[in-house]
Amino acid sequence: MFLKIIIFLVINFAALGIGSYFTSTAVTADWYQNLNKAPWTPPGWFFGFAWTTIMICFAVFMAYVWQLNENRNLLIVLFVIQWILNVSWNPVFFKYHQVAFGLFIIVLLTVLMGYFFFAYLPQLKVKTLLVLPYFIWLLVATSLNAYILVRN
After folding, report:
1. What confidence score (pLDDT) does residue 22 get?
2. pLDDT of residue 34
3. Could you report the per-residue pLDDT of 73-117, keeping only the tens digit for each?
4. In total, how many domains does the chain have?
5. Which run of H or of E encompasses 76?
């Protein structure tokens, strides 16, 4: 179990590393700074804290799902889709300024994380709460993305 958690941590933090490559200078760039952002936009430091917590919880969640799941091919496909959507949002939004396409990506990711929560709830029971921070954060992030799309 411990090895599975480590593997998922490495994969999840690789996604964060790639994402931070596109966000590190972009959040201070004129394009992002001049956007009309939602009043509930958290301070910048909170994003790193949130994503670190989310990815730790998600790695543990995935390790539990991996142990209990008989259809690992589906699990791998869903995890890879999650990873691609997560990583792709950053360049789409911050580098290419495609706010509408970014919203499309984050909505898909939110729906997928909702699936992870509800599909594995019967098997994992209370351990499914490990994926809840990811799902809740995506609901907030989706609202932030949507606000930027509508108000700019």
Report:
1. 76
2. 96
3. 999 999 999 999 999 999 999 999 999 999 999 999 999 999 999
4. 1
5. helix 72-90
One-letter amino acid of 38 = A
d(CA 143, CA 9): 27
For 48, the domain range is 2-151
Question: Which pLDDT value is given to residue 48?
Answer: 87
Helix axes 44-68, 72-90, angle to 10 degrees: 170
- Taking alpha carbons only, the member of 86, 26, 91, 11 closest to residue 56 is 11
3-state helix, strand, coil split of the chain in percent (to 5) is 85, 0, 15
The residues near 50 (Cβ < 8 Å, ≥ 6 apart) are 42, 133, 137
The answer for residues whose C-beta is within 8 angstroms of residue 142's C-beta and 6 or more apart is 103, 106, 107, 110
pLDDT at 60 over 90: yes
What is the CATH classification number for the domain harbouring 131? 1.20.1260.100
